[in-house]
Amino acid sequence: MASADPLIGHVVGDRYRLVRGIGQGGFGAVYEAVHVSLDRRFAIKTLRRHLGHDPSLVQRFEREARLTSSLEHPHIVQVTDFGHDDRLGSWFAMEFLRGEDLQTRLVRKGPIDSLSAVRLMRQIVDAFAYAHAKGVVHRDVKTPNIFLVSTEAVTDHVKVLDFGIARLSALTEDDASGKLTKTGTVMGSPAYMAPEQALNGKVDHRTDLYALGIVFYEMLTGRVPFSGTSALEMLSKQVNEVPAAPSAIRPDLNVHPRTELIVLKCLQKRMDERYRGIRRGRSPYGSRREEGSNGLWRFRTRIHRRRRTAAQQPTALGRATPLRQAMTGPTGPVAVRLPVGAGRATMTP
Ligand SMILES: Nc1ncnc2c1ncn2[C@@H]1O[C@H](COP(=O)(O)OP(=O)(O)OP(=O)(O)O)[C@@H](O)[C@H]1O
Ligand SMILES: [Mg+2]
């Protein structure tokens, strides 16, 4: 972000002075801000699009924003405030984090060894178990939304970013068209989007599990299972292609077979073939020491008793499913317009 950004110095909500642009995402921008009376730093996230004038929509937005702010967990970034600003649109204040996001880490250092990846995953799924229990689905799980906090006191303490933001953003309207994107629209990132989200916008906590499988896969191998030059190509692969096992991609990295099975189970195409939830079940690692702890080990599964067979590999959803969708960009979050109630996306110019 250029230093000539006219918003630098702007005071948001009478309290937060923007001092530096941190980055630009698909939904908006993030700024570092200093509270005008407390000597404290915050991060301000803006939603690029504006909330309409429909009072029921404003109410819904505020209800959702309150729900997002109510998430209080050691591994979820704390949203502390939100509001609307004439220049910025809707904004959220959250704790300012020091460290780097998981995408930056993977680019900088490459794949993460199995044990360290599992340790990070434990923290991540702990956060999701908590949010899912409160009925909040993330909808835009991806490595840029997993922050690794490192300070003098902690190293690689996970904070999940942007819980519920995709849903909030869908309640806003497009600046240019003024068209509401609430009904029949899916927001998400194609490289992480579950088949059901790509096909008909159906989303529940198992949609997050799929994207978590992709994040885990990426940690272990340094790449996502399905890539492509366009969003359409990636979504088509999410729906139709069976992912290669991490050990086949990087045999040199010695990914633990049980870890691999967990990843592949998350990546099942059908929602009901993934884990049912995060907190149920015993440790797939079969370690007594881990039983009773939250997180990965509590996936409902007995995969540690099974042998790895081809049948456990994720299967495609039957015959190849054609995807014809409108997208705004190949790699970042996209808005996919879907006809309400239809099982398949249609092309919107
Ligand atoms: N609370 C925070 N403290 C410090 N940096 C943050 C905070 N929240 C986000 N960031 C950083 O700001 C940058 C932009 O984040 P943003 O969420 O806008 O982008 P994104 O995750 O790529 O896209 P999306 O809008 O889809 O979430 C990222 O580098 C992110 O790590
Ligand atoms: Mg983000």
**Helix/strand structural class:** alpha+beta
Into how many domains do the coordinates divide? 2
- Tally of separate helices: 9
Chain oligomer state = single chain
The biggest beta sheet, please? 6 strands, antiparallel
Backbone shape: globular
Mean pLDDT: 77
CATH superfamily of the largest domain: Transferase(Phosphotransferase) domain 1
Kindly estimate the percentage of residues that lie in beta strands according to DSSP: 15-25%
Helix/strand order, N-terminal first: EEEEHEEEHHEEHEHHHHHE
CATH domain class of the largest domain: Mainly Alpha
> What is CATH's topology name of the largest domain?
Transferase(Phosphotransferase), domain 1
Concise overview:
With 349 residues, the protein is α+β, with helices and mostly antiparallel strands. It is built from nine helices and eleven strands. Helix 3 packs antiparallel against helix 6 and helix 6 packs antiparallel against helix 9.
